[in-house]
Automatic annotation (TrEMBL):
GO MF terms held by the record: quercetin 3-O-glucosyltransferase activity; quercetin 7-O-glucosyltransferase activity
Gene3D superfamilies named among the record's database cross-references: Glycogen Phosphorylase B
Name the UniProt record assigns to this protein: Uncharacterized protein
Entry keyword set: Transferase
UniProt-listed SUPFAM superfamilies: UDP-Glycosyltransferase/glycogen phosphorylase
Family, per entry: Belongs to the UDP-glycosyltransferase family.
Amino acid sequence: MGTIEGRKPQVVLVPFPHQGHITPMFQLGAILSSRGFSITVAHTEFNSPNPSNHPEFNFLLLPDSLSGCESSYMNSLNEILAINKNSKERFHEYMVEMLETQEQHGQVACVVYDTLMHFVDEVATRLELPTVALRPNSAAYLRSDHVILQLQADNLIPLPESQLQDAIPTHPLLSIRSSSAIIWNSVDMLEHESLVELQRHYKVPIFPIGPFHKMAPKFNTSLIAEDTSVITWLDKQAPNSVIYISIGSLAIMDKKELIEMAWGLANSDQPFLWVVRPSSVSGSEWIECLPEGYEELTRESGCIVKWAPQKKVLAHPAVGVFWSHSGWNSTLESMCEGVPMICRPYFADQVVNTRYLTNVWKIAIELEDPERKGIEKTIRTLMRDKVGKELRQRALKMKQELELSVQKGGSSWNSLENLVEFIMSFTQ
Ligand code: UDP
């Protein structure tokens, strides 16, 4: 492969520097690397990856001037603006250098960038370098953005309270920037309708080649150290008995919610593996605000850690339910292991994903009452009632269908073949 004699074509990746965005971009890098491309990652100083975990990639450091800035969802708009402003010129210099040395290192085929890193598109347009956008979240989420923008343009927002639960009529979609294609960490069988609608709107090819983590060789992209002792703890639990709880890398809760969760879990009489990320409870460093004696009381049934090897946890036979914030990576990881979910969304795509998980794919229940009684009831429904059994059966069926999608001849496999061919066409 490669148009410059003996050299692999190069693909440059530009991830947005948060866990839920870095992971799919690196997985995509691994997928493209296994298909014969040489991968260079241009990354910010903030949340910079560990190059030693990825010896097959080259790395370029972008200045971002974010050091010391508070990292949270609430601050993410400032982060996005600062990165886009501060990284652009250096990125331009890197690209000029790469283009000048293509003879030695292989032709630069294209830049794949997270759509939040829009400076890339500007630089690449200046240099006449093709770009491909990566959407690390569901197609349904982008579709919902379009609908909201259109409702706004039609002066229909805010909707009257009486209409908040009504289905929204289909609206024409709006336009975006100048990428040559869009890659989705999604699967045709999950999001066929949304993908078809988005394809109709964006005139460029769309490649749903997910779930990336099932298409990519396994490697670690965690920004926080994983507590691997949880696997030994899970080994001691009965099959399908454990509730695994994690709200991802950004969501934050208040102390009252943590305490209600703690009692809801303890009262459910099910074993639980609970990830409480440091600083994820406002005003607390970790779990110091749990009721006195709580850890002693739940010593037998509970395991609380700061960060877990989530994909391995979900694949463990002891795990029966995933209580999640419904981030897109977590959603796909749970689906791929056939684990039904309890959804407690906090913001952004988590709300849309929850709607799909509960109403379309029907493999989850939304936690509507986050107080201890509501939690206990939801857990019991999922673990012990007929409804829970049905959700589990559907989740297992979905797992099998997803397995077929990534196998030779499956939709994601075929879409990847087309993507590779598409990127190669830039080197002709
Ligand atoms: N994750 C993990 N260990 C944990 C909690 C989360 O490895 O204890 C990983 C999880 O596997 C997923 C990512 O962090 O790949 C979270 O991404 P997601 O899109 O679900 O949520 P976000 O963090 O972007 O809100």
